[in-house]
Write a structure and sequence with these properties.
The chain is of the alpha/beta class and 378 residues long. 39% of the residues lie in helices and 15% in strands. It contains 13 helices and 12 strands. The strands form 2 sheets. A 10-stranded mixed beta sheet has the order 1-2-3-4-7-8-9-10-11-12, sandwiched between helices. Strands 5-6 form a two-stranded antiparallel ribbon. Strand 10, helix 11 and strand 11 form a beta-alpha-beta unit. Helix 7 runs parallel beside helix 10. It is globular, with a radius of gyration of 22 Å. The chain binds S-adenosyl-L-homocysteine and iron/sulfur cluster (SF4). S-adenosyl-L-homocysteine binds next to strand 8 and strand 10. Iron/sulfur cluster binds next to loops.
Length: 378
């Protein structure tokens, strides 16, 4: 199978073009087609000589993602289910504004992207890990999730403009070159278990010649792979880091997240401290509230201590029910009480109150549902 062109950085393309005796400015033209115009075919690249297009075609694939299903309304959370070339399914979720994550008024569109097909970490409450791990996504498959949503938006704006024109309206929506301006790596899979491909994809999405999305607008979420957190601390790029904590005691964390047996809290905390020491950046602790498991007030105490120790903020997320799993979302009252308990202990905390659950917004759910439906029809 040929490597995909969107898995290469500018430097790698420059080396390749040099070997081919192609002038360097051709790389700039190619990158413009790939990331600014989001071309889907070699033949669209009309300012590249035909023989160069042929050479590219012989050496690289130019994959795009096929949209198989979309859920959600226009102005709310929208979920995209993509089919990859081996027919695997992955998801991306578009969130119109996410002040809970960034408390940033300019945060308009956040895209949650996947990094693996399935997940090997098997957290007890999560749909992504239910059928195990299938494979890592390649850098281009990670990058393409952003480009495909940009193309989808472009198409939408275009058709809305046509509609308005036919209705005789004169107000055309302006073209949006960068619709997605924040990325959260919180979709299917454990991003730090696909470290090299993730780093390459984020480098491409971050580069001015690529996606042009600032590193500070990119958040990586991990279930707690301590060695990779240390490795991330040494990277030159300033990504935000979120830890899926879900409990601040080893006893409870062991029960719901098997990864904690490999990297218990002590080790995870050390790695987080190292990250902070190297980066000087605030970490977010993600905490799903699951009824009867980690939502009792006596769990708020250790969480508050840990948040203080790490100078971290806490993001409380009411659990989204997963078909086939026993876990439930606590009542609003319980969630509010947990938040208040943290606030009383002077922890900076937010509670997500929107209803993403309506569209199976929890990671891995739409894929699981679709695969089960497909299995029934075969
Ligand atoms: N593997 C990484 C990133 C993907 S999961 C990680 O675990 O951090 C992204 C987030 O969704 C994690 O915080 C995860 O715990 C959470 N999550 C998984 N299933 C969920 C559910 N049913 N409801 C709410 N959040 C869920
Ligand atoms: Fe994997 Fe994250 Fe789901 Fe755990 S929560 S199974 S690490 S995707």
């Amino acid at each position: 199978m040929l490597p995909d062109i969107k898995s290469l950085t500018r430097e790698e393309l420059q080396t390749r073009f040099k070997n081919w005796n192609e002038p360097v400015y051709r790389v700039t033209q190619l990158l413009d087609w790939l990331y600014a115009r989001r071309a889907m075919a070699w033949d669209a690249m009309t300012n590249l000589p035909k023989q160069l297009r042929e050479k590219l075609r012989e050496n690289f694939s130019l994959q795009t993602l096929e949209l198989v299903r979309k859920q959600g309304a226009h102005d709310t959370t929208q979920k995209f289910l993509w089919r990859l070339r081996d027919h695997s399914l992955v998801e991306s979720v578009l969130i119109p504004a996410n002040p809970a994550l960034y408390s940033d008024a300019s945060d308009r569109h956040t895209l949650c992207i996947s990094t693996q097909v399935g997940c090997a970490y098997g957290c007890k409450f999560c749909a992504s890990g239910l059928d195990g791990w299938k494979r890592n996504l390649t850098p281009d498959e990670i990058v393409e999730q952003v480009l495909a949503v940009e193309r989808w938006n472009e198409e939408k704006v275009r058709s809305e403009n046509v509609e308005r024109r036919t209705e005789g309206g004169s107000h055309l929506a302006p073209p949006t070159s960068h619709f997605v301006n924040n990325i959260v790596v919180m979709g299917m899979g454990e991003p730090l278990a696909n470290y090299d491909n993730l780093m390459k994809a984020l480098k491409i999405l971050n580069a001015p010649w690529g996606g042009g999305i600032g590193a500070r607008k990119i958040t990586i979420s991990t279930s707690g792979l301590a060695p990779q957190i240390r490795r991330l601390a040494k990277e030159p790029m300033q990504f935000r880091l979120a830890i899926s904590l879900h409990s601040a005691t080893d006893e409870m964390r062991n029960k719901i997240m098997p990864v904690n047996r490999k990297y218990p809290l002590k080790e995870l905390i050390h790695a987080c401290e190292e990250y902070q020491y190297e980066k000087g950046r605030m970490i977010t602790l993600e905490y799903i509230l699951i009824a009867g498991a980690n939502d009792s007030i006596d769990q708020a105490g250790p969480l508050a201590s840990l948040a203080h120790k790490l100078f971290a903020k806490v993001n409380l997320i009411p659990y989204n029910k997963v078909d086939g799993l026993k876990w439930e979302r606590p009542s609003e009252e319980v969630c509010e009480k947990f938040l208040t308990a943290l606030e009383k202990q002077k922890v900076t905390a937010t509670l997500r109150r929107e209803k993403g659950g309506d569209i199976d917004a929890a990671c891995g759910q739409l894929r699981l549902k679709t695969e089960r439906e497909l299995a029934k029809t075969v």
